[in-house]
Amino acid sequence: MPLSDGRYLATPLTRGPWDLKHQHAGPPIALVLGAIERVAAGQHMTHIARLTANLFRPIPIAELSIEVDVAYTGRNLAHVSASLYGEGKEVARFTALAQREIDQPVSAGLPGHPLPKAPRSPEDSPPVRVPVARDQLGYFDLVEGRVAAGRFFNGPSAIWFRLRHPLVAGEVPSVYQRVAVAADSGNGISAVLDLRRFLFVNSDLTINLLRRPRGEWVCLEARTLLGDEGSGLAESVLYDSAGVVGRATQSLFVRERGVTSTDQ
Known about the structure:
The structure is a single chain. By secondary structure, the chain is mostly beta strands. The chain has one domain: Beta Barrel (Porin). It is 12% helix and 39% strand. It has 4 helices and 13 strands. The termini are far apart.
């Protein structure tokens, strides 16, 4: 919900799976991305080629504020940074690369073209209710899911996402924001550990986009890889209805619930 002066009030639709008081990172990342888009557009840079979100703390379901700064602007690109604040603390910091868009069609027959497509289209993918055992309103009420391959929370999978509700009341989300809302779910949909026994929380998210996304649907073809040191990596290929649009990665901290890092 928009307030004023770059401030917003989060609703329970943003609630994440780890704690009832905290947001799923997808919606607030998308919120900040919208502010970055508006600033970048003022520099005539309208394609967001990369977004990196460094998640310092859990993001509360509370009032949030955003600050955006242009670090550098050139002829064809701009580097933009932003910070997100909640409950008096900086909870996340962002960097983005925005590029000028030009009319330059891809030549036929180049390697990698036409772009690979998702395993199945959203129309051919069965709908699914995300199996989170909670009665409270949350992120999985904000989005609609359809299974293109695999299964939720059972290793590699491909899931289509679409917003059921506006990201910000009274605003139409941008195609870039639609991608960001979904992209932070890679470690969840491709989970290889039992959510009830383990935490595998991401402390960052990087999205690289090769072109402007299209439409309402975003597919994540995701997999999770784990190390032996309480670490891991979730990586997702991102699709829209026209084919591959980019990739997303998340660095994971992994531990058994009830066990602190000093106990391991």
